[in-house]
Amino acid sequence: MAIKGFAMLGIGSVGVIEKDYLEEVTTGKRLECGPLDAIVKPIAVATCTSDLHTCYEGGIGDRKNMFLGHEAVGEIIEVGEHVYDFKVGDKVIVPAITPDWNSINAQRGFAQHSGGPLSGWKFSNFKDGVFAEKFHVNDADGNLALLPNNVDPVDAVMLCDMVTTGFHCAESADIKIGETVAVIGLGPVGLMACAGANLMGASEIYAVDCIDFRYEVAHKHYGATHFVNFKKGKFQDQINELTNGRGVDKILIAAGTVQTIGDACECLINGGIISNINYLGTGDTITIPRLAWDVGMGHKTITGGLTPGGRYELEKLTRLLQTNKLNVKPLITHRLKGNFETVAQSLALMKNKPEGLIKPAVELEW
Ligand SMILES: [Zn+2]
């Protein structure tokens, strides 16, 4: 039976289509429910800036008729014979990153690169994504997390990518209680980087953006203490001025260009860490200014990486929702209900960026 979904048809072109089977789009390999796998039907999904990069900027190269999406909560409709912890009918949160947990890189602690750089990112990258009547999850025991009864599925969708990615940015910066932090970019991932820094005990949080209401959300809900509007001057100059020339201990980059990392070096204290989670889809070279990097002698660390994904990570984050230590509702400015045409509208919303938008999500009506 044909599978309906919202797909990338080629660079610059999207639409609702039907396919005969799910596939690994780069190889054409048909995806069936293997012994360790599960097939899931989505209940709630969210469109992501990555979907825009993929469709409209060719961020991962061309793809033909690939179902989009990597953020979903769903219900298991088929399960492999060697999946022990999940059964048909279970409601599950599906991470955007679904590594192969038996790989050597997973054993090294870098599961997100389980089959080569970034290859834990499978959905809507090299296999059909989650905006379809059903989708394929590899390594179900290692990758799925049960959706608790008292957690709203639309809230839970924020865990798949936004929360885990933002928190990974904060954790990669190894924030200590009382440290000062700058967060560059207050989109949904930047807001979650801010929330992560706040949960880890940051004192002052300098939030860099150009939209007042995003700062209001960051301040009211996620611990931001100072607004740095980059339209009013270089963010690094403003941070240096606000901190009397000291700079900050940690800088979390969730937006910007290939130049942002170098700029951040200019307001980072010696011994500080810059943690980048921004996908740099364009540009050839990242330039680090010699003097701001203290002629190579400054102990200014630059790190960054794809969020780990997987079940353990998602279960941890789910507990934060259950204990009300984290409230993701302020992120979800547009809650839609409908079908795959509605998912298309959600992506169009992200493309057109109406005032007041942070993140749309879609509850699917079957
Ligand atoms: Zn995403």
The gist of it:
By secondary structure, the chain is of the alpha/beta class. It has helices at 49-56, 104-107, 140-143, 153-172, 188-199, 212-222, 235-242, 260-265, 311-322, 340-352, and strands spanning 3-10, 13-19, 23-24, 29-30, 38-45, 66-67, 72-79, 91-94, 135-137, 145-146, 181-184, 205-209, 226-229, 248-253, 268-276, 301-304, 332-338, 359-364.
Would you identify the CATH H-level superfamily of the largest domain?
Medium-chain alcohol dehydrogenases, catalytic domain
Per CATH, which architecture of the largest domain?
Answer: Alpha-Beta Complex
Percent in strands: 15-25%
CA radius of gyration is 20 Å
Outline the biggest β-sheet.
7 strands, mixed
**Number of domains as seen in the coordinates:** 2
Bound molecules: zinc ion
Task: Compile the SSE list and pairings.
Elements: E1 3-10, E2 13-19, E3 23-24, E4 29-30, E5 38-45, H1 49-56, E6 66-67, E7 72-79, E8 91-94, H2 104-107, E9 135-137, H3 140-143, E10 145-146, H4 153-172, E11 181-184, H5 188-199, E12 205-209, H6 212-222, E13 226-229, H7 235-242, E14 248-253, H8 260-265, E15 268-276, E16 301-304, H9 311-322, E17 332-338, H10 340-352, E18 359-364
Parallel strand pairs: 11-12, 11-14, 12-13, 14-15, 15-16, 17-18
Antiparallel strand pairs: 1-2, 1-6, 3-4, 5-7, 5-9, 5-18, 7-8, 8-10
Helix pairs in contact: 4-5, 4-9, 5-6
